[in-house]
């Protein structure tokens, strides 16, 4: 039986079937180069299209350079354009080949057709080869004097290209003065706009080294030039109008009458159909009237209608750009826009990024007269299918409540949110109720009655759980089950992965202990023991601090942890006024859209994510591991020293009292916060002066359920790793699937480490210097994923690590698996120590 016939696939028209295809093209182009037969231009077009298509998909057709140049001897403008495109592409990487194009480009610069003259001049200036500079001066000089405006327009931009290739040649040829003459005298507005753009760039670059250039740059914003451009502004294109208006922004009028003249001249630009022109005009109005408070407010009233019109027209992307600028103005003067709050209601078909901005503006414009309507609208969004928008709407309700507008109705709405059977609604409402109680403590009775019915098991989000725990500690005297809820949370300490929740839990248990000691005693002892043993540095330090201050004096501990609190009047703004003013100065730019000054996103450090491809294999071994590893024994001994009871330290240091301030009786009515802080620091740093006996220390240990102090245990032997460890990927994958997770932890990454992650390879080399090797890595900013392995020095016992680092939160999520589970904690200490040193010189 014959085999089935194979399907014949025709080659793609955009790719050659083999190397001979390019050779065939070369032969055909050579045959057509000198031909004058009828229809030869049509044949050339087909061949040129093939060459351009091959070039576009990345096939090297530079070998056709000579033939393409020879075929350019034609009056067909389409062929000319394709030839110029080809020449411009290969001239940059093949300067020797580019030399062949000079003659025919210079010849075309003198062609009778102005379109060909302009295209040839543009291609000649686009070669950007330093050795060809002398060939540019003549054609550019002729182009600037050409009778056709298109050629002059191209020549002006060509001067700017020449400046970037050779600044001295451009200045020596006196091109800047020619451009200035054209700008002030040319009849074509596009030529004028190009001259303005080129001169601004040239003179700004030259101003640092030339006083004359600096004077010329200042002359651009002189009254005659500004008025000349403003009087012709209606003739300019939209792009050119924006350019002129940006220049006018830098002009400083001599008096108020001149300000009004300029504003009257630009009044009709506010009705322009193009959003960029409207925003540029608004920027002029705002900057001109900054020193005139009353007029500045009237400007806000005048620009409000054009902006609102632009927001409601055009694409969502255009609306967002305009809305970002409107958002900036609303934040600066919310009272002016308070009557137009309905324009900021969200439409069902709007993108989420537009809705988010509108919610922020609704929050800003809320006042006594419109709060009810705005809050009612926001509550409707809480049931939105778009969960992020629902969350933002609940936060907006809380922010309005914190602005002291109709608090009674808003509190009722927030409490209704707590009763909704949606996890994310409950979570956001809990956070807001916590802030509300900090500002309005008088609402505690109503809020706590509802909060007390919420089960902590149903709250999973860290911020919400932390808010619930804060309320349990702060109002434990009003919540009957508060000690028992806190005790159940402490018992599940190891299952809580958020350090923020564990920190709040420590403080809440302490507060509850001072209010209801018998019911909270066991929970406090368990919490302090768990906190002291916690891997997170902040949790560990806070637990030690609480433990030591309780040892010193329980009364002092209560004054520190649970002092009388005053209501919070103002919550801190997330953005400083200086940054807001800087963004306002950069109105009509990306700074407003990004809501950050330009220096924050134009520096090298902020130039966006980079691509980081997966890698598999071992890196070269470094010889610095032994010197860089922090001694686990030393860390353990330091912790034990911190945990020594006061009586034990008295034995080693001796009793002394230097008459320090903390031995004086405490007077709560006159002691300042600074004095209290000094009081505590002195007690901790010099515990021998404390007025309590060894028996008191033993009592507090027993009270907290930590047991009586015992002799220090001998330090555990330091874990040593094999510097020449090796593990093939298949073995790693097999072990990773088989072994259980020994430890799952979260580390903080230092700011230096986050900055150093712009080059992820640096982390791999750093960890290898600590005998921890990377077997695979991947991801891109802000999330990176690494797989590490290490081996014991004295035996073939492996440690496998999955490390996920988020540069946005500066956190590292770590999973450790080990052949020997008993040494996992020791290895975790080594790993954390190595990671903490990353990026630190």
From TrEMBL:
Keywords: Membrane, Protein transport, Transport. It is found in: Endomembrane system. Residues 1-23, 637-663 are annotated as: Disordered. It holds the Pfam family Adaptin_N. Residues 719-836 form the Beta-adaptin appendage C-terminal subdomain domain. GO terms for cellular component: clathrin adaptor complex; endomembrane system. GO terms for molecular function: clathrin binding. Adaptor protein complexes are heterotetramers composed of two large adaptins (beta-type subunit and alpha-type or delta-type or epsilon-type or gamma-type subunit), a medium adaptin (mu-type subunit) and a small adaptin (sigma-type subunit). This is Beta-adaptin-like protein. It comes from Durio zibethinus. The lineage of its organism: Eukaryota, Viridiplantae, Streptophyta, Embryophyta, Tracheophyta. The gene is LOC111299335.
């Amino acid at each position: 039986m014959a085999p089935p016939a194979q399907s014949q696939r025709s080659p793609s028209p955009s790719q050659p079937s083999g190397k001979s295809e390019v050779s065939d093209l070369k032969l055909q182009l050579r045959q057509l180069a000198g031909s004058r037969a009828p229809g030869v231009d049509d044949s050339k077009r087909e061949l040129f299209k093939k060459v351009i298509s091959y070039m576009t998909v990345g096939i090297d057709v530079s070998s056709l350079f000579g033939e393409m140049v020879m075929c350019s001897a034609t009056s067909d403008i389409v062929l000319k354009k394709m030839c110029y495109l080809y020449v411009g592409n290969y001239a940059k990487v093949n300067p020797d080949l580019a030399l062949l194009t000079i003659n025919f480009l210079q010849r075309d610069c003198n062609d009778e057709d102005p379109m060909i003259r302009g295209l040839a001049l543009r291609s000649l200036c686009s070669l950007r080869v330093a050795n060809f500079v002398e060939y540019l001066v003549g054609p550019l000089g002729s182009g600037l004097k050409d009778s056709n405006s298109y050629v002059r327009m191209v020549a002006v931009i060509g001067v700017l290209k020449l400046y970037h290739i050779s600044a001295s040649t451009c200045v020596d040829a006196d091109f800047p003065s020619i451009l200035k003459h054209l700008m002030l005298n040319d009849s074509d507005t596009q030529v004028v706009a190009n001259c303005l753009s080129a001169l601004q760039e040239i003179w700004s670059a030259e101003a640092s080294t030339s006083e004359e250039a600096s004077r010329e740059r200042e002359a651009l914003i002189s009254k005659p030039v500004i008025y000349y451009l403003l009087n012709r502004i209606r003739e300019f294109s939209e792009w050119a109008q924006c350019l002129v208006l940006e220049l006018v922004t830098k002009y400083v009028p001599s008096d108020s009458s001149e300000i009004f003249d300029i504003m009257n001249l630009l009044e009709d630009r506010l009705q322009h159909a193009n959003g960029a022109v409207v925003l540029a005009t608004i920027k002029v109005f705002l900057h001109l009237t900054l020193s005139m408070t009353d007029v500045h407010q009237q400007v806000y009233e005048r620009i409000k209608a054009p902006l609102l019109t632009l927001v409601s027209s055009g694409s969502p992307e255009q609306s967002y750009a305009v809305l970002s600028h409107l958002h900036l103005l609303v934040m600066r003067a919310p009272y002016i826009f308070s009557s137009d709050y309905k324009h900021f209601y969200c439409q069902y078909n709007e993108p989420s990024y537009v809705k988010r901005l509108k919610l922020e503006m609704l929050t800003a414009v809320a006042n006594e007269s419109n709060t009810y309507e705005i809050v009612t609208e926001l509550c409707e969004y809480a049931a939105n299918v778009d969960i992020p928008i629902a969350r933002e709407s609940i936060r907006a309700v809380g922010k309005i409540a914190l602005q002291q507008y109709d608090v009674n109705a808003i509190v009722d709405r927030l409490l209704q949110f707590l009763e909704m059977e949606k996890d994310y609604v409950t979570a956001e409402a809990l956070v807001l109720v916590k802030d509300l109680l900090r500002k309005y403590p008088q609402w505690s009775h109503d809020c706590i009655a509802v909060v007390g019915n919420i089960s902590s098991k149903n709250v999973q989000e860290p911020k919400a759980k932390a808010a619930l725990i804060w309320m349990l500690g702060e109002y434990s005297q009003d919540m009957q089950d508060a000690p028992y809820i806190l005790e159940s949370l402490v018992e599940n300490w190891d299952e809580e992965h958020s350090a923020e929740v564990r920190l709040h839990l420590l403080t809440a248990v302490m507060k509850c202990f001072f209010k209801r000691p018998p019911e909270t005693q066991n929970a406090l002892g368990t919490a302090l023991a768990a906190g002291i043993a916690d891997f997170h540095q902040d949790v560990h330090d806070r637990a030690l601090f609480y433990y030591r201050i309780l040892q010193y004096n329980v009364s002092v501990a209560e004054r520190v942890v649970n002092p009388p609190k005053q209501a919070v009047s103002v919550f801190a703004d997330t953005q400083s006024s200086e940054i807001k003013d800087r963004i306002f100065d950069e109105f009509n730019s990306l700074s407003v859209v990004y809501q950050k000054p330009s220096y924050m996103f134009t520096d090298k450090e902020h130039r966006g994510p980079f691509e980081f491809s997966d890698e598999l294999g071992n890196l070269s071994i470094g010889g610095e591991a032994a010197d860089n590893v922090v001694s686990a024994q030393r860390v353990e001994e330091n912790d034990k020293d911190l945990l020594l009871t006061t009586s034990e330290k008295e034995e080693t240091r001796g009793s002394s009292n230097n008459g320090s301030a903390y031995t004086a009786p405490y007077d709560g009515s006159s002691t300042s916060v600074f004095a209290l802080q000094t009081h505590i620091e002195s007690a901790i740093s010099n515990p021998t002066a404390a007025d309590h006996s060894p028996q008191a220390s033993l009592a507090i240990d027993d009270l907290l359920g930590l047991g009586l102090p015992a002799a220090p245990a001998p330090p555990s032997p330091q874990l040593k790793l094999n510097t020449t460890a090796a593990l093939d990927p298949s073995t790693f994958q097999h072990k990773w699937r088989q072994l259980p997770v020994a430890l799952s932890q979260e580390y903080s990454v230092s700011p230096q480490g986050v900055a150093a992650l712009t080059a992820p390879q640096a982390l791999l080399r750093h960890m290898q210097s600590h005998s921890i090797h990377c077997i695979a890595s991947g991801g891109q900013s802000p999330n990176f994923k690494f797989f590490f392995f290490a081996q014991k020095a004295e035996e073939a016992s492996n440690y496998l690590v999955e490390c996920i680092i988020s540069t946005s939160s500066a956190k590292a999520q770590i999973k450790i698996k080990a052949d020997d589970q008993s040494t996992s904690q020791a290895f975790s200490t080594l790993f954390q120590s190595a990671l903490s040193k990353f990026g630190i010189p």
